[in-house]
Amino acid sequence: MFISALRVRSPDGASEGINTYLYRSERVEWDSTDPKAVLEQAAGELVRLFPEVRPGGNEVRTYLDLAIPDDSTPDEVRAAFERFWNAHRHTPVPWLEKTGRIALLYNSEIRLSPVGEIESRKLFERCNAALIASRPG
């Protein structure tokens, strides 16, 4: 699956929030070491949307993309994010990595880069909530 959390601002600038998208992945080479290729393959059919700001025409300010095999556990995903975060939190964006079976990409507007440590965690929590909500039972 592919999960993307985006901090967006409405076209009129009146509202800002995080919209999270969950996609079904069909053909992904999870063994690939190229995180960009895995992320591109994983973005498939949109199956769920968790919006805070009405979608359409919004300005994307920051985003976190995760490509996750369907059988991944929330603990496995959190551990991958922690490794990713620890490896990149003091480096300029974009952050891109494949850790274990999970590919991650975080990016932001230049003026928001200094808050990347905090913002990337906020976006991850939205991705993780979408992952948990997508599981049966």
Task: Describe this structure as you would to a colleague.
The structure is a single chain. This protein has one domain. The chain has three helices and six strands. The chain has helices at 35-42, 74-88, 116-134, and strands at residues 2-9, 16-24, 45-50, 59-67, 95-99, 102-108. It is globular and about 40 Å long.
Radius of gyration: 14 Å
Describe the strand arrangement of the main beta sheet, using strand numbers.
Answer: 3-2-1-4-6-5
Integer average pLDDT: 91
Question: What's the tally of helices?
Answer: 3
Approximate strand percentage: 25-35%
Provide the domain count: 1
Kindly state the number of beta strands: 6
SSE succession: EEHEEHEEH
| 3D shape | globular
Gap between N and C termini: 18 Å
Largest beta-sheet details:
6 strands, antiparallel
Structural class: alpha+beta
- Helix content percent band: 25-40%
Task: Pick out the low-confidence regions.
Answer: none
